[in-house]
Structures are given as C-alpha cells and as structure tokens.
Amino acid sequence: MNILTTSARTAIWGYCFLLFSCCNDADLKLKSPIKAWIPYRAVQEIKFKSPAGDTITFKATTQELNEKGNDKACGTYDIQTIQTALTSYSDPSVRTIISISHEVVVGIKVINQVTKDTNLDIKFNTVSGLFISDDFRDKYLPELQLDGKTYQEVLHVYGNQVPGNLDFADILYAKNIGLIGFKTFDDKWYFLL
Hints:
The chain is mainly beta. It has one domain (27-192). It is 14% helix and 52% strand. It has two helices and twelve strands, in the order ααββββββββββββ. It has a twelve-stranded antiparallel sheet, with no helix packed on it. Strand 2 and strand 3 (75-88) form a beta hairpin. The longest helix is centred in the first third of the chain and has 23 residues, at 2-24. The protein starts with a helix and ends with a strand.
C-alpha cells in the first residue's frame, strides 16, 4: 500500500512538473531570424517599375499584434504576429498582407477588400523551407538573379485570377528585402526600384 502511495505521488509530481514547465514559455515570441522576412518600417512607400516604364507605388503599413492560441495543457497563450499591408494607390481595394507568426511561419495573402476574392494565400515554414499551404506551383529559391541583382531566400508564388484591376499572376518575395517583383495577369512584370 505504501509503495502504491509513493508511486502515485511520484506520478502526480511528475505530471505537475510537465504541466507547469511547458506552460512557462507558452507564449510564442518572434525571434530575429523570422523578423527578417518583414523588412518594412511602420509606414513607407515602395515603388515598382515595368520594363516599359510604367510605375506602381504601394503604401506599406506595419503593425504588431498578439493572436490567441489555445492548448489543452497550457490553456490560452499569445502568438506574437507582425503584419504588413501593401496597398496600391492605383487600386486601393486590393491589399497584399504579409505576416509572420508562430515563430517560423511567413504568410502572404492578396485579397480584394470589396469583393472579398482572394488572389493568393500561402504559408511558408522558414525552418523546413517548405510551403504549409498547397504548393504544387509555388517555389522556394535559395538564390535568384533578377534585373541585374542577386537575392537570397526568395518565395516565388502564383496567384489565381479574380475580378479586380490589380491581380498578381506571380509574386517574388525575398527575405530582408520584401516584395521584389510581380507579374500582373496582363503579362506585365514590375520590379522593385
């Protein structure tokens, strides 16, 4: 009987130790390596130019927020998230939203705010180098030569055509730089100035 009581006490203490030790660091904070995927300041303008000389300017607004997560053992916890919205002056109804969260995940979503149509929506794991979302077309490129420049760690993602003036057929997004190029469905490429 005494052995059973000792074993039960040990099991209870072990369970409590595991329960409380995993919950001390339950909040998911962003580390420096993932922050390099959102290089934008709080508010700034980003300009792109096509080979034909056409330009498109985006306003970038960045905010930090905490999303809520939930776990059976630890309960509710914060998930630190940084989000940048790119809005074109030529078509403010279309927003490109780049987010980092869950310590390792980069997300890119392009949505028409009026029609609620989504042009693209991807999630990428920066540790594994794999897409979490449907990636049958999307690519992670360790290096890319573009417009006479070399970029490291580039996401090449493809969009679906939806109603609107500014839909992306392709997006090129690089770590430490951000959006470096895109192609519209009328087959025009634009590159970061």
